[in-house]
Design a protein that fits this description.
Blueprint lengths: L1 H24 L10 H10 L1 H12 L6 H7 L11 H40 L9
Amino acid sequence: MPRFLLLIVILGIAVIIYALFDCIMSRGNAVRSISKPAWILTILLVPLLGAGLWFLFGRPRQDGNSVKRRNTPRRPSAPDDDAQFLRNLEVKRRQEAREAELRRKEAELRAKEDKKKKNDDGGTATDGKTA
């Protein structure tokens, strides 16, 4: 029984020391809930409970999202805030305007050709000379 009790005490001390070093080695801006010095005091003043609370509520998350968010530039939240999106819209608008202009010119050209074809087929002279 005394060996079992000694093992539990050693395990408790190891958990407290691990929590304390983990808290000290973590970045201050990554610590959750309360400030880093407050966590150190909590672990030292309320040893087992403080260590358990540190692991549950204070330890930085391991998913790395906080690091990614901090290092990557903030992306626009709306499409009209994105400069690339607005440039793409402008290019698309210009292309559509060019295509519409080309279709209009093609229609005019076809109309002129049809009119000339009618004049050539009908045999009527429109140059002002009489035959």
